[in-house]
Amino acid sequence: MLTQGNKIPADLRLIAVNMLKIDKSSVTGESLPVSGSVESTDARAFDSCNVALMGTVYVSPHSPFSPLSLIPHVSSFAPY
User: Which residue range forms the structural domain that includes residue 21?
Assistant: First the structure.
């Protein structure tokens, strides 16, 4: 379980959320935190809202997660 302000330690798939927001600016350059979701929102897994990327910052209430396996070819990774 992560708490507010923690950096995401690995690429994670979200399995439950409660008003989750993630600051992805270090990875994507987005200026505002984005909402997390348990639903896949994009055919590309790492663009989907149900994935939290390593190095991003967790900025809202608790949400459980499960670690993703190391992926050698992200572009060919199947969505969840």
Answer: 12-68
Between CA 54 and CA 6 the distance in angstroms is 11
23 is a domain residue: yes
Rounded to an integer, what distance in angstroms lies between the CA atom of residue 2 and that of residue 29? 22
Instruction: Tell me whether residue 30 is in a domain.
Output: yes
pLDDT digits (tens, 9 = 90+) for 28-70: 888 888 888 888 888 887 788 888 889 999 887 555 555 554 4
pTM equals 0.65
Whether 6 is covered by a domain: the verdict is: no
